[in-house]
Structure formats: structure tokens, C-alpha cells
UniProtKB/TrEMBL annotation:
Protein name: B box-type domain-containing protein
């Protein structure tokens, strides 16, 4: 059956493209494949350019320059401050030496006078001892630890802030509080996006993600289960390189749990999850691990994440199943 070609608009035998869902005649289907090939080559070239960019030392050079400039300026500032402090200390010392010299000279003259005359008693000795102790006390109290005040430093210490530890999904800096973000299924969020509620049944549950992406570091996120039905909520992660719904057939590699696994060696321990529980999900990008802890039962479990199946960046995924299920972010 002949149909219209999407390029030449002629009625001919056509082939369908499952990507753009257009139909092309034999001539233009080849042309379309050539266009796709060129686009693919362009993407490959862009990836190579990106790889060369982050592997190049040129990326760090301006930041090293800033650190070195700060180092030079800070050293100069410290040296100037140290020189001022040395000068101040010398002035204090010279002033004390001048004050002490006049007192010591006077006392020395008195002592020499009575010594030559051999005219002194215990009263004179006691007086000179007392005067010496007074001078020693003045000297000791003039030079103490707190005369050097290093708490007024005006040099801010430089540091490197790793913004890749956690970012919002739009690439901006991490907000003061984590928020729920994109959802699938029957989901309703509170006005501050700190509380999520399932509003109806969905064939494979309703998924909510958070707005923060994780690529490095260790992060602990605490949730409170406000309400839940017969089936436990799912706590875990998915890769942002895939669809956000962990149960979509195209993204089978979600990591997480519906419950704390039962330990055969500890059959009496409570591994249940119920309304009112607070759960902490730990995302350890350093060791490619995640951990879930129930604070009511003091039970926890962890799992290694296979990077090839769930590449960075990661984001939190929570699945709710029953109408009324509700979870809030604590911290």
C-alpha cells in the first residue's frame, strides 16, 4: 500500500521510522539514516570533547592560580602583622627597661651607700627584698600569654567547596532543606514539598523523587512515615540517567527496600515497618553503598550498588502503594 513520504510528499512504497514516527520512501529513508548517522557522530564528538575537557589540567589551572594568589597575599599580610607585633613588643620591653632602670639605679645607690658605711640592719634587708619582689611581680605580670592576641586574625581561611556532593536536579546549589520533586502515579505534595501523600491506587505504586542529586560524599536523609496501608513503602535510589520511575520496564535497576530483611540468626528481632516510624536512608557515594535504618527497632540493612547498573548521579526514590500513604522529610 502506497503512502505519502514525509520528505518528498509523494505517494510511494514507504518505510516507517520508529524514532520520529515518520514514513519515508526508499530514497529518503537512506537520506534519513544518513542524517541520523551524522547526528550520532556529532554526539560522539561532543562526548569526546567533554572527556578531554574534564581530563585536562586546564580545568584546574585558574583555580590553582586563585589559591596561589591567596597564599601570597596571606603570607604578606601575616608578615606585616608579625612585624607590627614584634615592634609593639620591643616598645613595651624598652618602656619597662626604662622604668626598671630608674628604680634599680635608685635601690642600687641606697644599697651601695649603706654597704660602704657598714650601716644596715634586718629592716633594710627586708625592705630591699620586698622592693625586689615588687619589681619581679611587675615584670612577670607585664609579660603573660594573653599579651599576644591572635584571635583577631582578619585572614579568611581558603577552602574548596565540593558542590558535586549534592546538587538540586536543576543544577543549582543545595537548598536549606531537601524537597520532594518529580512524581509518577497519584501523588500530592504539601505546599513546602516536605510531605508527600498517595491519593489513589496505581497498578505499580506511585513514585516520588527528591530534588537533590548525589555523586560523591556520604549523605543521611531522615523520613517520617505519617501513614501507611497494608504494603510497606519502598525507600531507595535510582540513577538520574534513567527514567525516574524505578518500576518502569526500561529502568529495572532500582536499589532499595520495602522492609528490613529478616535475620535467621536473630529471629526474635522486630523488622517491621509501621506508621510513626522514622527511617534514615544513607547514601554513600564513596563506597557505592546505601543503608536503611529504622530508629524505632534499631534495625538496619545495607546494599552495594553496581555502578554499571545504576550510574551517578543518584536520586532518592520512594514508592507508595495505598491511598492515604504519607511520608515527610525530617532532615
Amino acid at each position: 500500500m502506497k503512502e505519502e513520504c514525509g520528505k518528498c510528499k509523494k505517494s510511494l512504497q514507504v518505510s516507517s521510522c520508529h524514532g520520529c514516527e515518520q514514513r519515508f520512501c526508499a530514497e529518503h529513508v537512506r537520506e534519513h539514516r544518513q542524517e541520523l548517522t551524522q547526528q550520532l557522530q556529532h554526539i560522539i564528538a561532543n562526548y569526546h570533547d567533554f572527556e578531554n575537557e574534564f581530563n585536562s589540567d586546564d580545568l584546574l589551572r585558574p583555580y590553582f592560580s586563585r589559591i596561589e594568589r591567596w597564599e601570597r597575599e596571606s603570607i604578606l599580610t601575616v608578615q606585616r602583622s608579625a612585624e607590627r607585633a614584634r615592634n609593639d613588643l620591643c616598645q613595651i620591653h624598652e618602656q619597662l627597661k626604662s622604668n626598671f632602670k630608674s628604680s634599680i639605679d635608685r635601690i642600687s645607690m641606697d644599697i651601695e651607700h649603706v654597704r660602704q658605711a657598714n650601716d644596715y640592719t634586718e629592716i633594710d634587708l627586708k625592705k630591699w627584698r620586698k622592693q625586689l619582689k615588687q619589681l619581679q611581680h611587675v615584670l612577670k605580670s607585664s609579660f603573660t600569654e594573653d599579651m599576644i592576641d591572635d584571635s583577631q586574625s582578619s585572614i579568611p581561611m581558603i577552602q574548596v567547596v565540593d558542590k558535586n556532593h549534592a546538587q538540586t536536579s536543576d543544577g543549582s546549589d543545595l537548598p536549606p532543606r531537601l524537597k520532594f520533586d518529580r512524581g509518577f502515579g497519584k501523588i500530592r505534595l504539601s505546599s513546602n514539598k516536605q510531605i508527600v501523600k498517595c491519593t489513589g491506587s496505581h497498578w505499580n505504586g506511585s513514585t516520588i523523587c527528591c530534588n537533590t542529586l548525589y555523586v560523591s560524599g556520604i549523605h543521611k536523609i531522615r523520613f517520617h512515615i505519617n501513614q501507611m496501608g497494608k504494603q510497606n513503602p519502598f525507600f531507595g535510589i535510582v540513577s538520574t540517567l534513567e527514567d525516574a520511575n524505578p518500576w518502569n520496564r526500561k529502568t529495572p535497576f532500582a536499589y532499595g527496600w520495602w522492609k528490613i530483611p529478616w535475620d535467621r540468626e536473630k529471629p526474635t528481632e522486630d523488622t517491621s515497618i509501621q506508621a510513626g516510624d522514622e527511617m534514615t536512608l544513607t547514601i554513600n557515594c564513596t563506597n557505592n553503598e546505601i543503608e536503611l535504618e529504622n530508629h524505632r527497632t534499631n534495625q538496619y540493612t545495607f546494599e552495594r550498588v553496581t555502578y554499571e547498573k545504576c550510574p551517578f548521579p543518584w536520586k532518592i526514590a520512594i514508592v507508595l502503594y495505598s491511598p492515604g500513604d504519607s511520608i515527610s522529610i525530617v532532615s
